Amino acid sequence: MRRLAIIPARGGSKRIPKKNIKKFCGKPMINHILETCEKSRLFKKIHVSTEDLQIRNIVEDYGLKIDFLRPANLAEDKSPIMPVLKYVTTKYIDSNEHFDQIWLILPCCPLITSFDLINADKLYENNNPKNKLMAVSEYPAPIEWAYKKNSAGILKTVNPGAFERQSQSFKPYFYDTGTFYIFSTEDIVKSVNAGDGNNFIPFEIPFYKGIDIDTKLDWDNAEKIYRTL
């Protein structure tokens, strides 16, 4: 099985500048996921997709050669990720390098382990190959208990009467952790625009592994958890 891991790492992060290469527990953030990918021994190739020369230099100092940079038009703030995956995949196909699976692995998920990737691969292989896989976590409370603010800023229940039911009576719902995904090459090549968010196999991970690191508080909390593992 030939697997391509694509790690998208733009240089233009706003809330935490240079987030992808900022030192996390002593080394650049992206190095953590590079080590995890290599330790899993799953991937024929690992490609960091970046337009940023500083990121390229840090990745290559780590020991991973970046075969080509990302075009500037795919590195804008609102650029969806699927066209990036399609660009990388077709670029390799044009160079006569073909893969069976395309993995999207985000650079800011240092709590993901090689065992997570290995177990996700096993789950994917044992399911319908027409599906995709997404790492998810379960919402900690029923989404039916949600509130919303009205025009006066006062909370109103989204589902009146839902609080009359015990939490055990609700079906679980899941959210995208933004950590990693598995696609077939065909999925990527045939994708249109931002792609389709349906028909994913759920690979469940604990909520702490999918902390969305967007603020300094997120960063500090992730480092505290990392140091306890």
Notes on the structure:
This protein is α/β, with parallel strands linked by helices and 229 residues long. The chain has a single domain, classed as Alpha-Beta Complex (Spore Coat Polysaccharide Biosynthesis Protein SpsA, Chain A), CATH 3.90.550. Helix content is 28%, strand content 21%. A six-stranded mixed beta sheet has the order 4-1-5-9-6-10, with helices on both faces. A hairpin with a 2-residue loop joins strand 2 and strand 3. Helix 1 packs across helix 4. It is globular, with a radius of gyration of 19 Å. The mean pLDDT is 94.
Nearest-integer average pLDDT: 94
Number of helices: 6
The class by helix and strand makeup works out as: alpha/beta
Globally, the shape reads globular
Any idea what the CATH superfamily is called?
Answer: Spore Coat Polysaccharide Biosynthesis Protein SpsA, Chain A
The ordered string of helix (H) and strand (E) elements is EEEHEHHEHEEEEHEH
CATH-defined topology: Spore Coat Polysaccharide Biosynthesis Protein SpsA, Chain A
How widely separated are the two ends?
A: 31 Å
| Cα radius of gyration in angstroms | 19 Å
